[in-house]
C-alpha cells in the first residue's frame, strides 16, 4: 500500500501544485470542482462539435458551399479555443484524462520511459551496430507501446505488484487524494 501511495501522492502533489501555480486549473478549490468543470467543458465541446457537423450536413444537403455559409457561422467555427495552453508535462497528464486515472497513468508512463532512457544510454554502443535509423524507429515504436501501457495502467500494475491489488489501488488513490489536497492547501495559504 505504501509502495503505491507515496509515489502517486508525490506525483499528484507535483502535478496539481504546478497546475495551480501556472493557472491551468482555474479558480477551483478542489480536484472535484476541477473534474466537474472539465467534464462540463468536455460536454460543451462535444455538443458544439455535434452542432457544427449537423450544420455542415444540412449545408451539404441543401447544396450550399462553404463560400455561401454566413460570415458569422464561419467566424464562430474558425474562432480559436480560448483555453490556456498547457506545458508538455501537463499536456501529457491531461492526455491521460487528468484526475486520479491521469496521475497514475502519467506516473506509469514516467517510470516506463525512464527505464527506456536508462536502457538506451546503457546500450548506446548498439547505435553503431544497429544503425541510427533503426534505433530511432524502435524508439518511436517503444514510446507508443509505453503510452498504451500507461493508458492501461491497471493491467500493467496488476502484473507487477505482489499482494492484494485492491490495497495497491486504494493506496494509490489515498496518495492521489492527499497529494492534491496538500497542493490546494498550500495554494490557499500562499493566497492569504
Which keywords apply here?
mainly alpha; 192 residues; 2 domains; single chain; 78% helix; 0% strand
Tell me what the structure shows:
- The structure is a single chain.
- Helix 4 packs across helix 5 and helix 5 packs antiparallel against helix 7 (132-151).
- The longest helix has 31 residues, at 31-61.
- The protein is globular, with a radius of gyration of 22 Å.
- It folds into 2 domains: 1-24 and 87-192, no CATH class; 27-83, no CATH class.
- It is built from 9 helices and no strands.
- Residues 67-83 have low confidence and may be disordered.
- The chain has helices spanning 2-22, 31-61, 71-78, 88-95, 99-122, 126-130, 132-151, 153-158, 165-191.
- It has 192 residues and is mainly α.
Order of helices and strands, N to C? HHHHHHHHH
Specify the biggest β-sheet: none
Spans of 5+ residues with little confidence (pLDDT < 50)?
67-83
The helix-and-strand class reads mainly alpha
Whole-number mean pLDDT: 78
Topology:
Blueprint: H1 2-22, H2 31-61, H3 71-78, H4 88-95, H5 99-122, H6 126-130, H7 132-151, H8 153-158, H9 165-191
Helix pairs in contact: 1-5, 1-9, 4-5, 5-7
Q: Nutshell version of this structure?
A:
This protein has helices at residues 2-22, 31-61, 71-78, 88-95, 99-122, 126-130, 132-151, 153-158, 165-191.
Amino acid at each position: 500500500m505504501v509502495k503505491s501511495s507515496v509515489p502517486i501522492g508525490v506525483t499528484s502533489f507535483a502535478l496539481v501544485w504546478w497546475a495551480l501555480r501556472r493557472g491551468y486549473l482555474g479558480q477551483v478549490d478542489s480536484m472535484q470542482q476541477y473534474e466537474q468543470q472539465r467534464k462540463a467543458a468536455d460536454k460543451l465541446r462535444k455538443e458544439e462539435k455535434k452542432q457544427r457537423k449537423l450544420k455542415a450536413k444540412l449545408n451539404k444537403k441543401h447544396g450550399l458551399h462553404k463560400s455561401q455559409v454566413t460570415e458569422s457561422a464561419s467566424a464562430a467555427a474558425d474562432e480559436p479555443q480560448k483555453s490556456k495552453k498547457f506545458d508538455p508535462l501537463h499536456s501529457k497528464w491531461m492526455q491521460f484524462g487528468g484526475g486520479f486515472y491521469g496521475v497514475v497513468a502519467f506516473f506509469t508512463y514516467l517510470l516506463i520511459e525512464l527505464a527506456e532512457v536508462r536502457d538506451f544510454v546503457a546500450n548506446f554502443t548498439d547505435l553503431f551496430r544497429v544503425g541510427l535509423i533503426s534505433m530511432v524507429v524502435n524508439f518511436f515504436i517503444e514510446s507508443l507501446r509505453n503510452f498504451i501501457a500507461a493508458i492501461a495502467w491497471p493491467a500493467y500494475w496488476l502484473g507487477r505488484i505482489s499482494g492484494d491489488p485492491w490495497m495497491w489501488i486504494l493506496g494509490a488513490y489515498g496518495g492521489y487524494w492527499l497529494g492534491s489536497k496538500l497542493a490546494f492547501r498550500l495554494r490557499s495559504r500562499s493566497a492569504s
